[in-house]
Amino acid sequence: MSLYFKYFKVHLKSELEYKTSFILSFIAQLFTLFSYYFTIICLFNQFSNIKGFTMYDVLLTFGIIQFGFAFCETFFRGIDKFDTLIIEGNFDRLLLRPRNILFQLFCDKLSLIKASKVIETIIVLIIAILNIEVNWNGYRIMTLIFMLFSAIIIFLAILIASASYCFLTIKGLEVRNVLTDGCKDMAQYPIGIFKKGFINFFTFIVPMGLVNYYPFLFLLGKSNNKLLCFCPLLTILYLIPAIWLFYRGLKRYSSIGS
Amino acid sequence: MPFIMVKHINKTFKVPIKASGIIGTIKSFFNRKYKYIKAINDISFSIKKGEIVGYIGPNGAGKSTTIKILSGILVPDSGEVKIDRLIPYKDRKKYVQEIGVVFGQRSQLWWDIPAIDSFNLLKEIYKIPDNEYQKTKDELIELLNLKDILNIPVRQLSLGNRMKCEIAASLLHKPKILFLDEPTIGLDAVSKKIVREFIKKINKQNNVTVILTTHDMADIEALAKRIILIGKGQILYDGSLSKLKKQYDYLRKITVITKDKVHLQKPYIVEEKTFEEGIEFVIDIRKIEINEFIKLISSKMSIIDIDVDSGNIDELIVKLYEDFKI
Amino acid sequence: MRSYLSYFKLKFITGLQYRAAALAGMSTQLFFGFMYISIYIAFYESGSSNLPMKLDELINYIWITQSFFMLIYAWYKDEEIINMIKNGNIAYELLKPQDLYLMWLHKILGERLSQTILRVLPVILIALILPKPYTLSLKTTLPALTISLIALLLAILLMGVLVTLYHVICMFTLDEKGIIAIIMVAADILSGLVVPIPFFPKYLQNINNFLPFRYISDFPIRLYIGNIPLSEGIISIIVQIVWIIILFALGKILANIAIKKATIQGG
User: Fold this and answer.
1) Structural domain of residue C229, as residue ranges?
2) Whole-angstrom Cα distance, residue B124 to residue B133?
3) CB-based contact (8 Å) between A21 and chain B?
4) CB-based burial label for B110 (10 Å; 0-12, 13-18, 19+)
5) Residue of chain A nearest B124, judged by CA positions
6) DSSP code of residue B153
7) Local confidence pLDDT in tens for the 326 residues of chain B
8) Is B68 in Cβ contact with A14 (below 8 Å)?
9) Touching check for C179 and chain A: CB below 8 Å?
10) In terms of Cα–Cα distance, which of C132, C151, C129, C126 is closest to C30?
11) How far is it, in rounded angstroms, from Cα C179 to Cα C194?
12) What class, spelled out in words, does domain B4-245 have in CATH?
């Protein structure tokens, strides 16, 4: 952990070398997220609800998912940008250092520019929480915290799994967009609004439902099953196959080279 | 057992064949063909502790593949590598603690910050104890004269100064083996000299084993007593540079400034050119010693000036490559 | 002219090289199309009256935007050109006996067309055979088809001059992440790719009519699916042409200023 902060300091120093660029990019990032926000506002201007969920409900699920993603983009940028590391041949450098490869990847890049998105999502979350109709109690607050936590975990797992893909080929990286961006865009909405196939997909294959749907039902009082409060924690299990895939990819990499 | 032991390693890569033109591109879009390239073909050698070995060969000969295998980045298809009782690609974390690697065309320093910050981070990465780090760092700063450049962002450094920092960075954890992949590429004459002398020094002082790839034969001449020549994935020569010289570097150009017009047709004279100020001979020193030859010509003509070209290692290598058809 | 076409050809061929990229791109587009439709279906099923687009119109709109996505999205930068500007290698481009602006325009058009050509047909074919309500329907009339094809061709040109303009601006800012990124996001939203423009608040729709962005994707596609009457289409085609001329001239003039500046400063 202390090593992570040492890396953090180095990256911070690097980014602040270019102050104007940093500030401009920081602001530009706010706009990228804005288009999603804009979509939701526009649509709820025309529709009063989506399958019984209000605008503030959707803003909450949107906020949670985008928070998890932005958090990973900010603090685990190296794994997000793994493709460039492979393409530029700099991955070899990590292999020459006596530390865990995944850990080094987390540290390899940090993007404080993306921190603007983290802040923005927190603002959206605050707006949603202030307006949403929830009878807050200890369990519900805990549920919300678990949801936020699991959002980080699930994107971490997705990023690790999709980084493993780069070991196979650096072509067709857009497949990663299907996984990360696509799943992210859909899961901005409570996944229960979709057709059965999608619900199964987001429950069993990419378990976004564990992050923002099943616990959300409990949060809104649509379900009284207290177990749902803990289901976000199951996302931790999802890390296992992701990490396994990564190490399999690593093995392949060292047998065929770049 | 030798310090570094490489036994019968092989490595083959699969590369797609690129077609040209629109039709070819569309064809290969649907049906891609591959070819197999044997990057390394049954290579074996061993290196003693404290040796400096020059690993040379033309582009694409398999040099960097070998370096990648030796540094644990690549696993060979078959064969065995053992370095200081470790298998590089098996005990990665333990092994890399013992090696330092400098890629002349890549950087391990963080581009936008001063080198000293990179050093401090590397200290943490390699878990170097405080007092030891302090000592090694001071030594390196002293030896490479880094004091004034350590606090400047790396991107603003000249190539020579950057390379000095790169090498220092790779030595902070006191590795037993140092891999240098074209360390002098693009450097000016002064920086090249500094780098070479420094490598020599740490090799002597710390008994660091150095494996060096380069295209600059002056590096080899200055540093390596032993060279391994590789071409098309195979070892073509492994031995001392002086022996190689004897085998391949036997022609000397002797330019004599004289007013006399003389013709010497002798079997040891390969070439004889007369020009306005004098005569240029190319002789075969396997057949006659240089001082014998000079004695002979001084008896035949009055010499105003004489110049003996002491053989060029670049030409030697060109000749070698031609001989081996690589 | 031929030398510019060779840039186009070069980019076009390079784009075709990447088989995996094409397959991946195709599945991306299908996935996103499917996803957007699913979200809208959920909204439409939740019931509301007075909607600005019928559901089947909206579905056609989504499939067509997805199949032409690589050609019409505004969030586009050519890494090669951007890197050249940033690391100063642009000096070599200036050594070539060609007009920088036209060279870039051809490069960008070539690359984007090559990326599109491998996706349009598969995406449309698959969308056609999808079960209801996801299916795409291509029913149209000959006049509508003709006019929207003209509109599409003009839209491609408009996209080309707009995207080239970003790169020209980058010669001044030397960084694509600040102002240019903001323009790109705005262009993305205002061209109707994020949410179809009929769903925008009225005042924004009115402002948008006076900006170039909606004439790249929103206009030709809504014209084709019948959400915009043909009579309005003719007027909008004139607007398209005007914007192409304006953006082309602007890009060309700015490029000349930037080149002059670069040669004076010595790169």
Assistant:
1) 2-265
2) 10
3) no
4) buried
5) A3
6) B
7) 789 999 999 999 887 776 666 677 667 666 777 888 888 999 999 999 999 999 988 888 888 899 999 999 899 999 999 999 999 988 889 999 999 999 888 888 988 899 999 999 999 999 999 999 999 999 999 999 999 999 999 988 999 999 999 999 999 999 999 999 989 888 899 999 999 999 999 999 999 999 999 888 888 888 888 999 888 889 988 998 888 877 777 778 888 888 887 787 888 888 888 888 888 888 888 888 888 888 888 888 888 888 887 666 677 777 777 877 76
8) no
9) yes
10) C126
11) 20
12) alpha beta
Kindly determine whether residue A254 and residue B14, on different chains, have CB atoms separated by under 8 Å.
Answer: no
DSSP one-letter code for A232 = G
Class of the CATH domain delimited by B250-310: alpha beta
- What type of residue sits at position A160? I
Q: What is the CA radius of gyration of chain A?
A: 19
- A positions 128-157 inside 8 Å of C (CB): none
Look at the pTM and tell me if it is higher than 0.90: no
Distances, alpha carbon B216 to alpha carbons B78, B134, B189, B192, B220, in Å: 31, 34, 12, 10, 7
CA C145 to the chain's CA centroid: 19
Residue B154 makes CB contacts below 8 A (sequence gap 6+) with: B107, B109, B110, B111, B112, B113, B114, B115, B118, B162, B165
For A134-139, the CB contacts below 8 A with 24+ separation are: A134/A219, A134/A220, A134/A221, A135/A221, A139/A218, A139/A226, A139/A229
Give the amino acid at C240: Q
Q: Note whether C175 contacts A172, CB cutoff 8 Å.
A: no
Q: Chain B: nearest CA to A164, how far in angstroms?
A: 17
Which amino acid is located at A112 in the chain?
L
Cross-chain Cβ contact C16/B29 below 8 Å: yes
Domain that holds residue A103: 2-256
DSSP string, A216-229: HHHHHTS---GGGG
Q: Could you give the angle at the alpha carbon of C34 between the alpha carbons of C33 and C38, nearest 5°?
A: 115
C51 contact residues in A (CB cutoff 8 A):
46
Please state whether beta strands B278-284 and B251-257 pair in parallel, antiparallel, or not at all (unpaired).
antiparallel
CB contact, 8 Å: A51 with chain C?
A: yes
Q: Do B26 and C16 touch (CB under 8 A)?
A: yes
Would an 8 Å CB–CB cutoff place C242 in contact with chain A? no
State the Cα–Cα distance between residues A73 and A60, nearest whole angstrom: 20
| DSSP assigned state of B37 | E
CB proximity under 8 Å: B 41-100 to A = 65, 68, 71-75, 77, 89, 92-94, 96-97, 99
Map out the domains of chain B as residue ranges: 4-245, 250-310
Inter-chain residue contact B22 with C19, CB threshold 8 Å: no
Q: How many domains does chain C have?
A: 1
Q: What whole-number distance in Å separates Cα of residue B219 and Cα of residue B209? A: 16
Q: Which of residues 90-129 of C touch A (CB under 8 A)?
A: none
- Tokens 């013992």 correspond to B98
User: Residue B103 CA to chain centroid, in angstroms?
Assistant: 12
CA distance B272 to B323: 24
Whether residue B74 contacts residue B85, with contact meaning beta carbons closer than 8 Å, is answered with: no
- What is the domain count for chain A? 1
Contact C39 A193 (CB under 8 A): yes
d(CA A34, CA A24): 16
A28 lies within 8 A of chain C by CB: yes
The secondary structure element, H or E, covering residue B5 is strand B4-16
Enter the ipTM: 0.86
CA distance A17 to B153: 9
Q: Which chains share 3+ C-beta pairs under 8 angstroms with B? A: A, C
Q: Which of A156, A157, A176, A158 is nearest to A166 (CA)?
A: A176
Q: Does A172 contact chain B (CB < 8 Å)?
A: no
